[in-house]
Design a protein that fits this description.
630 residues; mainly alpha; 32 helices
């Protein structure tokens, strides 16, 4: 699939005029600054110098064609700081609340956030906070919360949001109360406090409908949709996001429309409807570019890359994630950079370029540890590193990474159980690879103990397969059979025909090793029709070869012949073996024929079993890897 996205330069004009601020003379008149007026002429020289600087920055600051967005508003920001020097807080706030000539006509202080200049926002808010009446402080507190949350510091963000919420309640400002509730919900979501998240979002929606604020209503619906998607409730998520999309289109709010479209794209990706997912993400990205919403553009590149990854189009996936990384670097967004690096690591892992994958995961881990409270980022980087080390057969380093990931799993909220199982399973597999079987069994058993608290049949089967396989290698066939019997029970309860086939086949193999030929035949005959039904040709061949050998040992020639006939319809090598058998029987008799056939089939059996072992190990590793992907 060809990429529709050219290299994106965030600082390019993209159709915007160079001058996005109002004319300087107009702004001076609006501020009431006239240096020739008596009140300004009588000011002390130091204060008069500050006002002169304000005038110069507003009227004499020229912007180049290739100027960055921050440079385009530099004159206004410098004027703001000079007004703060003379403690003219009212005029300073007027500059911050000046509307810019951008597609969304945002005020200066909010537009800085849309562009991703969070540190600049923190600087201006911190300077003017508590210097003006309550209503202004509410906006500044909420703005500080937004900036810190975008930088990944949810604890400081919560402090500012909470202060804003208390003031909004006290002053009965329902609109700001609803806005802050939505932001508090975002903070709780980043902290994985899901019950508090949903309460905030629902309260915000109630207030929006009560005061008939359609923009806030759409925002609350988008938040709810994204929340339900994170919980796996895709039907509810789509319902909320489509309601938000309708409102956005009704009120012509492009930013809200892009957010709803992006949310729908993620839901459809989760549902593996990749064509729909890509369409929605492309619509969202185009709008985000149009309105110059840096965070939105970042998310769109990330989500587009994720769809390409699911489609195994790694070239376009890399392109999308690299553009995400480039933009995150431009606007100094640590969370975005951490995510982009992890995504690039995952793509290189899938391409089996393990050295690059490790490099990107390590960079992602370093940033995650610098961001206070970014537990999810740290966990995903450690798990990605562990998975990559396993693929590159460095099992000791893999175990080290997983051991570091294990203590922080408990802070992943509703993802804790899946994360903990994934880590324990990976550690067990790594120990198995280095033949430290007692340690591997220890971790497999930890998984089985953990599964007594909740139901996860996939994880239970993987653990039982792992333990059973180790017991078989150690020739403890009775213990292995106990595992496979439990595995069979789980498979039959969940209707998993593939695992049921594996369990029957392994039980047959182990009973053969225990010299219980009758039971071995019984289990093999139950596995055979299932393998045929599921199209598992290699497993059919392995089972039939074992049946031929068992019937030959028992001199049960009619059953042996029946198994050979079935084999002849399963693998072409059996046809010459039957011809060979007939010739040898005519020349040398039955005994020689059986000896020759057993030797011939033994060779085929060895190669088939080796192939099956490789296939089963591959399937187990794929299952472990899928825990991360999900």
């Amino acid at each position: 699939m060809k990429s529709d996205f050219a290299e994106f330069d965030f600082n390019s004009q993209n159709g915007l005029d160079v001058d996005i601020t109002p004319p300087g003379e107009w702004m001076l008149a609006n501020l009431g600054i006239d240096l020739a007026a008596p009140e300004f002429r009588e000011l002390p020289p130091c204060k008069r110098a500050q006002y002169r600087a304000v005038k110069n920055w507003l009227t004499m600051c020229k912007v180049k064609r290739d100027a960055s967005h921050l440079e385009k508003v530099k004159g206004f920001l410098e004027a703001f700081h000079h007004l703060c020097e003379v403690e003219d807080w009212e005029k300073a706030s007027q500059i911050l609340f000046t509307s810019l000539e951008t597609p969304t006509n945002q005020t200066l202080h909010n537009q800085l956030g849309n562009w991703g200049y969070y540190l600049e926002q923190i600087k201006i808010y911190s300077r003017i906070l508590h210097k003006l009446p309550t209503i202004n402080n509410l906006s500044f507190l909420n703005g500080l919360g937004n900036a810190y949350l975008s930088l990944g510091n949810s604890e400081i963000a919560f402090e500012y949001y909470n202060q804003a919420f208390i003031i909004a309640k006290k002053t009965q400002d329902r609109r700001l109360e609803g806005v802050v509730l939505g932001n508090l919900g975002n903070t709780y979501l980043s902290q994985r406090k899901f019950s508090k998240t949903i309460n905030c979002y629902q309260e915000s929606l109630v207030i929006a409908r009560e005061i008939q604020d359609r923009r806030m209503e759409g925002s609350a619906l988008t938040n709810l949709g994204n929340f339900y998607r994170s919980q796996g409730n895709y039907t509810q998520a789509i319902e909320y996001l489509k309601q938000s999309l309708l409102i956005a289109q009704e009120i012509s709010d492009r930013q809200l429309e892009a957010a709803a479209l992006g949310g729908l794209g993620v839901v459809y990706r989760c549902r593996k409807e990749y064509v729909k997912a890509m369409q929605y993400q492309q619509y969202s990205l185009n709008i985000m570019k149009e309105i110059q919403d840096s965070k939105g553009i970042e998310k769109s590149f990330m989500n587009v890359g994720a769809v390409y990854r699911r489609l195994k189009d790694y070239t376009n996936a890399l392109n999308s994630h690299q553009q995400h990384l480039s933009l995150a670097n431009q606007i100094q967004d640590p969370l975005g950079k951490r995510q982009a690096l992890a995504d690039l690591g995952w793509i290189y892992y899938l391409q089996e370029n393990y050295a690059l994958a490790i490099d990107f995961y390590q960079q992602s881990l370093s940033i995650a540890r610098q961001i206070k409270g970014d537990i999810e980022g740290e966990f995903l980087a450690l798990f990605g590193l562990g998975t990559t080390y396993i693929a590159s057969k460095d099992y000791v380093k893999a175990i080290e990474c997983y051991q570091h990931a294990l203590p922080i799993v408990g802070q992943l909220g509703n993802q804790r159980q899946k994360g903990e199982i994934g880590v324990l399973l990976a550690i067990a597999e790594a120990y198995k690879e280095i033949k430290s079987y007692h340690k591997a069994i220890e971790y497999y058993q930890l998984i089985l103990i953990l599964l007594t608290e909740f139901n996860n049949s996939e994880a239970e089967i993987l653990a039982l397969v792992g333990v059973g396989g180790i017991y078989s290698k150690q020739k403890e066939y009775i213990k292995a059979n106990n595992c496979y019997e439990q595995m069979l029970s789980v498979a039959q309860q969940t209707g998993d025909r593939q695992i049921e086939t594996v369990a029957f086949a392994r039980l047959g193999s182990n009973h053969k090793k225990l010299q219980d030929k009758t039971k071995a035949i019984e289990f093999y005959k139950q596995a055979l029709p299932l393998a045929k039904e599921l199209g598992q040709r290699e497993r059919q061949i392995a089972i039939l070869i074992d049946l031929v050998l068992i019937h030959g040992e028992q001199e049960n020639y009619s059953q042996l012949w029946d198994a050979l006939v079935q084999l002849s319809f399963t693998h072409w090598l059996v046809i010459p073996s039957i011809i060979l058998l007939s010739i040898i029987m005519m020349v040398g008799g039955t005994v020689y024929a059986l000896i020759s056939l057993i030797i011939f089939l033994g060779i085929v059996s060895v190669f088939s079993i080796i192939f099956i072992i490789i296939l089963v190990n591959f399937l187990q590793k794929s299952s472990i890897t899928s825990l991360k992907t999900k």
